Amino acid sequence: MKTLKVIATTGLIASLTAFSVNAQGAYSSYMETALIDTCRAALTDSTFKLRKTLDEYNLKAKTVALGLVCNGEDVITFAANRGATNTADYMNEKLDGASITDLAANDRVIYEVTFEDAPE
């Protein structure tokens, strides 16, 4: 019975470690596409397009607002710095009054992507 507990615990730790490495390291091509498409949708300054992209990939706006980093900037700053104030405001509203700096101290998963953000 003791051996079974050790094996189960080891398996659980290994699976959690694999998840944390995947969340901060290499992404599947689907996930990378979803993240880049979300960053690009934020650049359009169209809340409709952003919401449609989030729905398409089954992403929650608050999760994206808290955890997505586009080309080294959080998604809200990324959009605002490029003149996409409508989408920046929309994502900021999804934070429910919390700011990104307030939440920076918490352990949270960050999804960072870098891509060429030239207009298509």
Note down, in words, how this protein is organized.
Residues 1-23 form the signal peptide. Pfam families: DUF3718. Keywords: Signal. This is DUF3718 domain-containing protein. There is one protein chain. This protein is mainly alpha-helical and 120 residues long. It has one domain. Helices cover 62% and strands 7% of the residues. The chain has seven helices and three strands, in the order ααααββαααβ. Helix 2 (29-43) packs antiparallel against helix 3. The termini are far apart.
User: Please, how many helices?
Assistant: 7
Rg: 17 Å
Order of helices and strands: HHHHEEHHHE
Number of domains: 1
Numbering strands along the chain, what is their spatial order in the largest sheet?
2-1-3
Ends apart, CA distance between termini: 60 Å
Specify the oligomeric state: single chain
Q: Which class best fits the helix and strand makeup?
A: mainly alpha
Q: How would a crystallographer describe the biggest sheet?
A: 3 strands, mixed
Number-wise, the strands total 3
Low-confidence stretches: 3-24
